[in-house]
Amino acid sequence: MSDEQVGVEAGEAASAEAANVAGCRAELSPRIGRFAPTPSGRLHVGNVYAMLATWLSVHASDRDLANRIDRREALNCDIDKKGENGRQDKSCHSDSSSGAARSRGKVLLRIEDVDASRAVKDADKWIMDDLHWLGLDWDGEPVYQSQRADIYDDALRLLKSNSLSDVEFAGQSRKGGTSDGKAFNDKACAGETPRRSDGDALPADFPLVYPCFCSRSDIHAAAAPQEGDGFLLYPGTCRKLLAGHPDEVRSRLDAGRRHSLRLAVPQECPGERTVVFDDLVFGEQRFDLPSQVGDMVIRRSDGIFSYQLAVVVDDWLTGVNDIVRGRDLLRSTAMQIWIRHVLAASGFETRYGLVPKTIGAANGLMACGVSCADAVGVPVLDSASLPPAMQGTQLYPTYAHLPLLDDSEGVRLAKRKGSLDIGTLRDAGASPEQVVGYCAWLLGIRPPGGVHMSNTIGPVPMSAQEALQFFVWDGVRADRSDRILPLGWSDDLTRMKTNV
User: Fold this and answer.
1) Distance spanning both ends of the chain, measured CA to CA
2) For the chain, which has fewer Cβ within 10 Å, the N-terminal or C-terminal residue?
3) Which tens digits make up the pLDDT trace of 198-215?
4) What is the pTM of this model?
5) Dihedral sign, Cα of residue 297, residue 298, residue 299, residue 305
6) How far apart are CA 212 and CA 237, in angstroms?
């Protein structure tokens, strides 16, 4: 082959590669995360730990994508030079920073005040002030759940329009919660009669949403807590009542009996009903819906919409595709995947215009080639794996659940328990860099040369932007155990120095 032919082929390869990079830039869906505090008090260090992880997760994708595009364009330019006998092609002058800017990730702020009884006056203002002080910026105006009851009510109406059998048999795959049209366990149960956990068949038209008259004490008396997290599995009392004695249910409703509304989950059929998703920290997670999750409350007896329903609706409508939170919410993720699935089957995405024109994936990427996915370390969805009804959708986010933050006695930090808050730390003279640096250390960030005041490797002050230089999820995965704050940790934090 002549030098000229080699040059032409190299030039063609470079052009194709450049087109792929350009396509990735144009089709990449930005990472969108969210801060979602409950305004029940001042932020504490555990909240900051989770919020910093959210901020880093979103912006690390920006960083990694920009670096990957820079490397590819440098390679393309080098190939162009060789292919065109030393002449530099105009594509070598492309501005990779502009491509990264077009796909810049966002962090949204949502004030989760759907339960007004838990809200503390001005707590939302304290939270925003602390976030500004810490340098954890967000995009756009805050969203208040208390102002979105009409949207949650609309979602509930859509769910009420279906029976359990209408939505039961289309599920999600093992990767990232992406719909592939199979049953949740990859075993089709179509045509099987849904069954209760006691083995009795449910009516074919058993509603997806049904009234529950049980009090909390009734459920505590009838259910045993699941291991570890104290979760109470609903024993199905009112599901059985409706299936066997629908007239009694109607009589109670006519009499105005106070009741919550529950969302039914698939019952037993050949094979298990298992939600499977990949977590960035804890790996593959499996939750069997009837035996580990159960029928869940989506509207309480006092008329307040549940956290689970509100969160799914808000994340979906605001485009959130990167969710970071504590490991205690792993089971909640299984609940939310089911809620998201049945909302999709009920027409929620069509009603709110949530179907983009290009093929989307649970990881937030458009189908633009494996090399583009490599830039952020997640697979691109092959649109052929989606059934026609689901093509073009972006159903599920990626999830990362963090080890919890406990005090020296092993009790989880919480506002309601009076955990040391950011206001107290600020009054004690702590700097934003000290608080961020301590939380970064808890996330496994180990900058070179960092020395603790005790001359051992430990946390060092840094800004969020500085922490971003060193953040990788491997640092969190390296230690999945809950973090224990030693006695005197707050004094250590305020004395923290870069060097001794």
Assistant:
1) 64
2) N
3) 445 677 789 999 999 998
4) 0.77
5) positive
6) 8
